[in-house]
Design goal:
The protein is α/β, with parallel strands linked by helices and 431 residues long. Helix content is 32%, strand content 21%. It has eleven helices and 18 strands. The two termini are 30 Å apart. Bound molecules: flavin-adenine dinucleotide.
Amino acid sequence: MDIITDVLIVGTGVAGLYSALNLNKDLNITMISKGKIDECNTALAQGGISVARGYDDIKLFVEDTLKAGKHKNNTESVKILAKESIENVNKLCELGVDFERNQEGLVFTREGAHSINRIVYYKDITGKRVEEVLLNNVKLQNNINIYENFELIDMLKIGNKCIGGVCTKDNEIVNIYAKVTILATGGIGGIFKNSTNQRLITGDGISIALRNDIKVKNLNYIQFHPTAFFTENSNCRKFLISESVRGEGGKLINNKGERFVDELLPRDVVTKYICEEKIKTNCKHVYLDVSSMSKDFLTKRFPNIYKECLKNGIDISKDPIPVSPAQHYFMGGIDVDLYGQTSMDNLYAFGEVSCTGVHGENRLASNSLLEGLVFSQRGSQKINNEIKNKKIEVAKKFNYNLDNYKDSNKKILIDTISRLRGDIKNELVTC
Ligand SMILES: Cc1cc2nc3c(=O)[nH]c(=O)nc-3n(C[C@H](O)[C@H](O)[C@H](O)COP(=O)(O)OP(=O)(O)OC[C@H]3O[C@@H](n4cnc5c(N)ncnc54)[C@H](O)[C@@H]3O)c2cc1C
């Protein structure tokens, strides 16, 4: 079976869905997701989305992002992110995302390394709400078809021109031919033993880029979140205790009940202090204490975190939460320009799989969903303007030995990351 379409979008998280909504409605769009449609990191996002508090805040927002990223960011991308945050968050509201509001309008919370409160949120399940609303809007458009459990394993190309993707469905090969292909395949958490990410998000877009000599960048920039719920089991996804819990006053303490770090420092710094404290105290975790907040506040502000911890025997209104760092986010990725264009013709990359350079060496909290929105919107506009000059091309069929092909994709990435980051080699899964 082959599929022919104007635009192929690989991934149904924020970057894929928002891109689909920003493409012209007269284009035939095919979207695929590796697992179920909402089995993605977007649906797990808790804290919220950063947005400039008005045009006067753009400069400070840029400065905060550069400082957190250790000035390794692409300043041009950061300025675009901050400037275009307002229109894109407004558009999300128009699409139906009902962020927390009071009489004065949107309510803004704070997270580590932001100088002011500038994060919009929906309870502690912002990503789930964003995913639902975007998906509902996409389903209303009859020019978009979505296929679940459909896995991209390679690019279809002629020379350096992408002409679609090679996929598998129920262990059969399906070639999808497209004028333009968009990779929105997310991060790499699934190749780590301890990660807050969905297990099926294994950096496939990056492996496929490496396999096809598509330019990649900063593959050594990997973020560990300081506060994942500690469990001994290393095969399950680690439940995140959002940074906004510290933003609202949660304190990090060691097993003697002593504070050892300013909780609102950038993520990499807090992670480093926690790792040192674990060694000093000979304990596998530290604690996050929120018992100064009332149960009423906690159940309203963090209902999901409250429930999830309770399931694991921790009543957060009384007991400190055992936490330890876990892989969380990938700042590197497929090298793209300010419109998500990759080094391969007709191939774009949006969201966590891409490297716009916006995060530098360390992502500022809540800038990821925003990056997915801003750059997929810009890229989609560019595709709208250029697609009329493109045509479908069909290449010869390829023979794939499916038994070892998927694992070999994963292995390419694991080998690359081990080589670049010997210090975290033991954190990677083996395949
Ligand atoms: C627990 C958690 C909390 C977070 N909280 C926040 C937050 O509060 N604010 C914030 O800004 N960011 C947050 N992040 C980060 C943010 O959620 C992600 O960076 C962002 O959602 C990535 O969006 P995406 O569209 O690029 O990828 P994803 O949402 O991960 O979607 C990837 C898609 O690609 C598909 N896919 C992957 N490989 C293939 C393949 N081979 N074939 C076909 N399909 C494929 C998947 O099926 C999926 O549909 C959080 C992340 C986690 C894990």
